[in-house]
UniProtKB/TrEMBL annotation:
Species of the source: Heyndrickxia sporothermodurans
NCBIfam families reported in the protein's UniProt record: feoB (TIGR00437)
Taxonomic path: Bacteria, Bacillati, Bacillota, Bacilli, Bacillales
Protein name: Ferrous iron transport protein B
Binding site for Mg(2+) 1: 22
TM segment ranges: 278-298, 344-364, 384-406, 418-444, 450-470, 508-529, 606-627, 636-656
Length: 665
């Protein structure tokens, strides 16, 4: 059995998916979280559950919405769970009608009933089920209430179609539907004919590309002409929408009743402040600054120092004793202690700071604030030539650029989507955070939060300026309207916060055992060998030769030492490897010692120039692959690599040389 999980954005789909499958996918209290289908095994029922991106209609307007339509057209599945937001029932039922018209067995999960009650709407689930002709189960997907009942109803569904609600679309459209159904009888397509006819009449691009028939095109043209002569301005799409709305209004009227609204409407009161025209952006920036203050100055750094002491003290001693006990060769001991432990451990010491940062971001997401942040940033985005939806991939990019690039699928306009794909890698991801933590601890101890905050802000500012430039030159397009649903505020649950934080941070930990481990071994081998053989002095190693070849090129940026050049190159593999490389190159017992040695090669000005370069230069290999996949073009992928390198060099040059000129350094 294969069950499709379908619903509007931000209705609790992914929360329900996690509960029914026992897995954990990223959940956020804002739309656009799911951008591709995810498959999991059902816990209590035999079969698979397929979580599809949130859509308002089966008529696709963006790439992620097209995933759903194509799934309905091309995949074989048994039944459907349609999750519905009870507090937005009218809008949600527009999708429900289209799902029911598809004819597969359906069970409806009526979520957020408590929110609907607070808004003055009490829904009778049994009456609603009777009107829709399919089971309706009230649930609270967030905590699992009612989800077991939903699983029972799903198991009880037979393979017969649900009762299809008969929505009357008017004589002209109904005649058109009948004619198209007759034509489709000759087509070898095993899909519901009435559903196909309606989608063709609405002009669904995925359906029209599947069924190309001149007779059908002629019928649609006839329907359009008749509507023009009888109703003057009504289009087929508008008439179908209005007919569904009329039917939905009647269903809601007969299956619900209005009650007194809760007087304690905190959502509206808070929104007046956080979405204020002038206060909105300063409030957002204040939240971001507080996040970095907690991460670096108050909590994260002491925890990282403690972890560093463990790695460089007891752990290193235990491993060294173990290697000596088994009589490991000097080469193996050096590889493990100076290569793997120094490289991998030097990155893992920053795990506390990264997880605290993600915990804060998860709190803002689950509380409902991030949707408001996207709204207040819309004006800036629009002025820069971006759709307001671009802010969502950028925020996701703060965790990792790869899902950030993928999240651009939610943007309808192709050029706006491409622009977002190319600019999202400028967002400062968690991998860069380990480099920032190393350098700010060495050069800006009293101002760590301010310096890191400035780097994150700089990435956003550069992205907006480039968006303005590119949208006026390379990618001229018409601006589109930004619409986002503002979810109700809620107090995040501890378990949800932990899962969300772990989901964001586990990639960083996982890379320690893959990219960082492999990179550390390669870097150490290059530092251990040279033209003179094995075990050469570091300055005569192959790694030093590579670094010395690059050093003259980056000297104008203030960090023209071979160690910096050698560390930047493996950053293409994964940005964390920059820290691993420096730990291996400088061969220090702990992070504090490494920071001390860095002060011999860098000044505060050249250190900041280096951090700006790290922020903006070539994306990591995984992000490059994501850009290629989403942009669908090597031309734009190479452009993304090229422009980021040029911008990184230019801005670092201006900062370093300008700083020297201004401060007389």
């Amino acid at each position: 059995m294969q069950t499709a999980l379908v619903g509007n954005p931000n209705t609790g789909k992914t929360s329900l998916f996690n509960y029914l499958t026992g897995s954990y996918e990223y959940v956020g209290n804002w739309s656009g979280v799911t951008v591709e289908k995810k498959i999991g095994r059902l816990k209590d029922v035999q079969g698979e559950l397929i979580d599809l991106p949130g859509v308002y209609s089966l008529y696709p307007l963006s790439k992620d919405e097209s995933v759903v339509t194509r799934f309905f057209l091309n995949e074989s599945f048994t039944n459907i769970i349609n999750i519905v937001d009870a507090s937005q029932l009218e809008r949600n039922l527009q999708l429900t009608i289209q799902i029911l018209e598809f004819g597969k067995p359906v069970v409806i999960g009526l979520n957020m009933v408590d929110v609907a009650k607070r808004r003055g709407l009490e829904i009778d689930g049994q009456l609603l089920a009777k009107k829709l002709g399919t089971p309706v189960v009230p649930i609270t997907a967030r905590n699992g209430k009612g989800c077991n009942d939903l699983a029972v109803q799903l198991n009880a569904l037979d393979n017969t179609s649900s009762k299809i609600p008969y929505v009357y679309y008017g004589k002209i459209v109904e005649n058109g539907i009948m004619k198209i159904i007759q034509i489709l009888e000759d087509e070898k397509i095993d899909l519901p004919k009435r559903w196909l006819a309606l989608q063709l009449l609405e002009g669904n691009p995925d359906v029209t590309s599947l069924i190309k028939n001149d007779q059908i095109s002629q019928v649609i043209e006839e329907v359009e002409q008749k509507l023009k002569t009888t109703t003057s301005s009504t289009t087929i799409t508008r008439l179908i929408f209005d007919s569904r709305k009329q039917w939905i209004d009647q269903v809601i009227k007969e299956s619900s009743r209005e009650t007194e609204q809760s007087k304690n409407n905190w959502t509206e009161k808070i929104d007046k402040i956080v979405t204020h025209r002038w206060l909105g952006i300063p409030i957002f920036l204040a939240f971001m600054f507080l996040m970095f203050k907690i991460t670096f100055d108050w909590l994260g750094t002491p925890l990282s120092d403690g972890l560093d002491a463990f790695f460089t003290g007891p752990l290193t001693d235990w491993i060294q004793s173990g290697l000596q006990a088994v009589h490991a060769s000097a080469f193996i001991q050096a590889l493990v202690l100076q290569g793997i432990i120094a490289g991998v451990g030097g990155v893992l010491v920053f795990v506390p700071q990264i997880f605290i940062l993600f915990l804060f971001i998860s709190f803002l997401e689950d509380s409902g604030y991030m949707a408001r942040a996207a709204l207040v940033m819309d004006r800036l985005m629009e002025r820069a030539g971006l759709n307001g939806k671009a802010f969502i991939p950028m925020i996701i990019g703060f965790g990792c650029n790869v899902p950030g690039v993928m999240a651009a699928r939610t943007i309808e306009q192709p050029k706006e989507r491409l622009l977002t794909i190319l600019l999202t890698p400028l967002m400062s991801c968690s991998a860069r955070l380990s480099i920032y933590a190393l350098f700010v601890g060495a050069f800006f101890e009293k101002y760590q939060a301010i310096v890191v905050f400035s780097l994150y802000l700089l990435g956003v500012v550069v992205a907006l300026l480039l968006a303005k430039l590119f949208s006026k030159t390379l990618m001229k397009n018409e601006s589109s309207v930004f619409v986002i649903e503002l979810p109700p505020y809620r107090v995040p649950q501890i378990l949800t916060l932990w899962r969300s934080t772990w989901d964001k941070g586990k990639g960083f930990v996982r890379k320690a055992g893959t990219f960082i481990f492999g990179g550390s071994v390669v870097i150490w081998l290059l530092s251990y060998m040279g033209p003179g053989g094995i075990g050469v002095d570091m300055d005569n190693s192959f790694l030093a030769m590579i670094g010395k070849a690059i050093a003259p090129l980056i000297a104008p940026l203030g960090f023209g030492v071979w160690q910096a050049g050698a560390a930047l190159i493996p950053g293409f593999l994964a940005k964390e490897v920059v820290v691993s490389s420096m730990n291996i190159i400088y061969h220090t017992p702990n992070t504090a010692s490494l920071q001390g040695l860095l002060t011999d090669s860098f000044t505060p000005l050249s250190a900041y120039s280096f951090l700006v370069f790290v922020l903006l230069y070539i994306p990591c290999v995984a992000t490059v692959a994501a850009i290629r996949n989403e942009a669908g073009s090597w031309k734009w992928t190479l452009f993304g690599i090229g422009y980021s390198l040029v911008i990184a060099y230019a801005l670092s040059f201006v900062i370093y040389q300008g700083g020297r000129l201004i401060f007389g350094l």
